[in-house]
Please model this.
Amino acid sequence: MSRIESAFNRLRKQGRKALVPFVTAGDPEPALTVPIMHALAAAGADILELGVPFSDPMADGPTIQRASERALKHGVGLGTVLGRVAEFRNTDQTTPVVLMGYANPIEHMGYEPFAAQAEACGVDGVLVVDYPPEESGQFVEILQRHGLDPIFLLSPTTPEARFRQVAELARGFIYYVSLKGVTGAAHLDLAEVAQKIPRIRTSCGLPVGVGFGIRDAATAKAIAGIADAVVIGSRVVQEIETSPRDKLLENLSTLVKGIREAMDGE
Model:
């Protein structure tokens, strides 16, 4: 059983939902990535989503684009990201880590070398934004051979026939993009999300996490009432961008604890 599956099973027994914060590896500087990961886990994160910096992050809004730019200025690439996960695993063998990124860095490294290194470093899942299910068969096969969960995106415009394609390949959880737009957009439609989630669960048989447009504790609580996981990225990255270095970990912890408490009804 993967760490991701174990996390969802544990939360289900507790009657709780997963909190999945996103950060870009190497932002604001490489030395802070692992301390940030530990701070998020200590503050109540159940799964960590770690962005691989990329020069053309097409699904990301301005906040996460700037995070990639800051990381790339420090020379952070896929190999660096994997090294940070390995460092994190030195003291945390429990919290699942999902890499989120784009095809180019993985194809540059090669499917097999990437999957082998990701497994060795302690990665649990991989979400590649620009790999549609129709083109992912070989990649998914290699990931699964190395014990890595392939995670796929679904959106408000995804036809239900496509749910079944994703169901054949996905493991871990489904990431539902809650709106028609990029990360950080503000026009989340809770009624539409509530209508879509049960249909995705029925088709795919996996937990469903919802992301894009979740910017505060109240919205996270509302999403937790209808989904299995709440993914929050731009708001977390914004905190990294605006916090003084000496207050960064404290501010992130306060933000995530507040979201966690709202989701748990405390």
Notes: Residues 248-263 form the longest helix (16 residues). Confidence is low (pLDDT under 50) at residues 181-185. Strands lie at 18-24, 48-51, 97-101, 125-128, 149-150, 153-154, 174-177, 208-211, 229-232.
